[in-house]
Design brief:
Helices cover 17% and strands 30% of the residues. It has 540 residues and is an alpha/beta fold.
Amino acid sequence: MAEQYEWHQRYLRRHRVSRRNFLRGSAAAAAAAALGTTPFGHRAYAQDAPLGVAGRRVGYGPDASSQLRLAAQLSRNPGATKVFVDHGPTPGLGATVEAEVRNLVTQIPDSSGGVLSAEQFYVHAPVDGLPGRTPHFYRWRTDDGFVSDVLSATTAMPSARDAVGWFRFTMMGDQGTNETPSFPAGLARGDYDDKSYKPDNDPTAPHAANVLNQIIASRPDFHVLAGDIAYADPSGEGKRAQFVRKGDPPKGFDKFNPYVWDVYLGSIESSASTTPWMFATGNHDMEAAYPVHGYGGHLARLDFPGNGPAGCPSVYSFTYGNVAVLSLDANDVTYEIPANQGYSHGAQNAWVERTLAAHRANPDIDFIVAFFHHCAFSTVSDHASDGGVRAAWGALFDRYQVDLVLQGHNHAFERTDPMRAGAPTRAAEDNSIVYPETDGTVYYTVGSGGRRRYNFQPGEQESYRGHELPDTFVPNSYVWTADGDKQAEGIGWSRVRFRNYAFIRVDVRPGNLMSEMDVTAVDEYGREFDKLTYRRQVRA
């Protein structure tokens, strides 16, 4: 990715864009906003329009039980105008913090000639020193008159055994957005949005919005997304970025349109403005227009807790009650898409081992959950399993008895039986009880958040509640090898397969003697199709 970014810098040195022409381009974009979707209305990016704040979202800081991170997008360059967050323990607020403005400039080749330029502004405000699992109220305000409505977000439950109670979180990956971006003007649907469904599925249904609405209805305490977030880069190969209006990019390039993020952040605001959303990064999140391994855009838009290894922004850990959650960056270890392969030089893997060991040694932590993008175990035909992920983390997950591994990348739903050393230990059918300490780790693929569906292997059939197969063995799957090839493998660990849009709902019931965790698979219309209950004895 560093080489791809440097190529962009050399290109821009040969194709300079003057500030005057850049601003003229921004004005043209503003005029185009009336033709399509933008969270700010038809005057987005116009410098003479009132300054507005939209795309609000909240996440956790390094200490999730006492820290919130508030973020949003501005409708234009604020200039000297200051932006504030008013916040407090009641709707009366009472405290104020000035927000940090992060200016993200994007300049990439346009396939029709010239350079596509974009300038986006994001605001961030940390709020620390809060009590655990307590609502905290906030609003965005500018000193030239804009005032948002008052919302509230809640910190995490502390991990002290006598403080924990029932809680819920949700998860999915590979989301994108149903809406076509406004900028540049005249984009057809299906190139930078999710409207490219298979012929046998309803192409008019807003699948990403349906899943999001079910998540909102579930009222989770927090939500995790296992990479491939907005799909501003719909190619996802880690190549040089180029704006391509329609169709495939030229050889050696990925398609990229930074304005997709405007639409995406607006689309999730109804949930993310009050429920902490925690992100991992996938292959479509490596955006070569930016430095820092292609994550520079994410560092401008998003807030990561920042307690992972240096130089790995989307690698972090947080705890909620008796559950420890790790976000990992599979781009560092994947064999399939090597653009960022090895960028941490082993630092991530060393951190994973230290962090898992610390969580498993903590008597207040019962369950450990890891989420990331590329799949260690999946049979979906487009990507299947990644040997690099298995090699990096499989033995660590076994050693430290990780309970759940949540993956994306493959656009379907799949669940394994409990596993140790790459093999199933027992069958875990729908409504089974799993004892992870002895049974092993269960791997979920939930790349079913809204992007177009993938197929399973030829001849492989779905198997889920009400449609169970008596034998779920798959003779013709494969795993990616270190040389970038596919190695055939027959597997017996695939228990549930569902080829449609879905997410998981996790209900945790901490106890003093035994703790339980229900993991339920739910489709885009709220229908449940799989459930396991995990039980762990509480350690003294």
